[in-house]
Amino acid sequence: MTASTETLTTTQVYRVYIKATPEAIWDAITKPEWTERYGYTGLVDYDLRPGGRYQVRATEPFKAASLAMGRQLPDIIIEGEVLEADPPHRLVTTFRMLMDPTMAAEPLTRITHEIKETADGVCSLTLTHELDGAPNLAAILRGTFESQGAGGGHAWVLSDLKTLLETGRSFAN
Amino acid sequence: MTDDDLVFKALADPTRRLLLDRLFERDGRTLTDLESDVEMTRFGVMKHLRLLEDAGLVVTKKSGREKLHFLNPVPIRLIHDRWIDKFTERQVTALADLKSELENQA
């Protein structure tokens, strides 16, 4: 996928409905003991205040699996800064993927998580990723390279998160 | 209707699939923009978009005075992860079983 001059917006929007409390969903996004259990299994570290640091470290099994596919990972695979944190409803951070030099060279992108209670103990989680100038990251996050082992991107992660919160199980275990 | 039913119903129409294809090519489009791709009245396109939105396949966002439509692939991913993976896994297992059975006989 390459950036096209025709593109009106490079923003990606994902929404999933989860039978869980806003607090449970917030924790699943912001606490490493949760994030290592679904999706890419990275260990998040958020300093949840404006200007606070946001980092994701790779787990040892994830590093080993990447090495087996011929890619040595840095310890920190995602870095950014917290712009807004309003638990358990809204989290805005910048985001830069450091897993490979091409993506690391792309400009900082911006992710907004919004958690809203709908009805009957169900919440919507909306993830908006503004990806201006980051076509390589955008392609990965759309799941374009899933068959090559790059994971299914945001849709895959959110599907796994829903399964984990609703059933206690995920792809990773 | 369950969430899955809404998704299958929304996908069971060529115009709605075309609208999703258009959003896949170029995301975050207005009604006016999408309308130009389809041989249909504005009202007709609105109706289809509403069905897609109800099924969660389209998410709308306000941007100034405009309402932008985004393709949300998560409902399709959920069906993939819950159903299609399950069936393909079984087929592969069945073929693997058949192979080992035939080879053991030989």
Give a description of the structure.
Helix content of chain A is 28%, strand content 32%. Chain A has six helices and seven strands, in the order βααββαββαββαα. In chain A, strands 1-7-6-5-4-3-2 form a seven-stranded antiparallel β-sheet. In chain A, a hairpin with a 3-residue loop joins strand 4 (76-86) and strand 5. Chain B is mostly helical. Chain B has two domains: 1-72, Arc Repressor Mutant, subunit A (Orthogonal Bundle), CATH 1.10.10; 73-106. Helices cover 67% and strands 11% of the residues of chain B. In chain B, strands 1-2 form a two-stranded antiparallel ribbon. In chain B, helix 1 (3-11) packs antiparallel against helix 4 (42-54). The longest helix of chain B is centred in the last third of the chain and has 32 residues, at 74-105. The interface between A and B is medium-sized, with 24 and 19 residues.
Question: What's the SSE blueprint?
Answer:
The complex is a heterodimer of chains A (173) and B (106).
Chain A: E1 11-19, H1 22-30, H2 32-35, E2 43-46, E3 53-57, H3 60-68, E4 76-86, E5 90-97, H4 101-104, E6 109-117, E7 122-130, H5 135-141, H6 153-167
Antiparallel strand pairs in A: 1-7, 2-3, 3-4, 4-5, 5-6, 6-7
Chain B: H1 3-11, H2 14-25, H3 31-35, H4 42-54, E1 58-63, E2 66-71, H5 74-105
Antiparallel strand pairs in B: 1-2
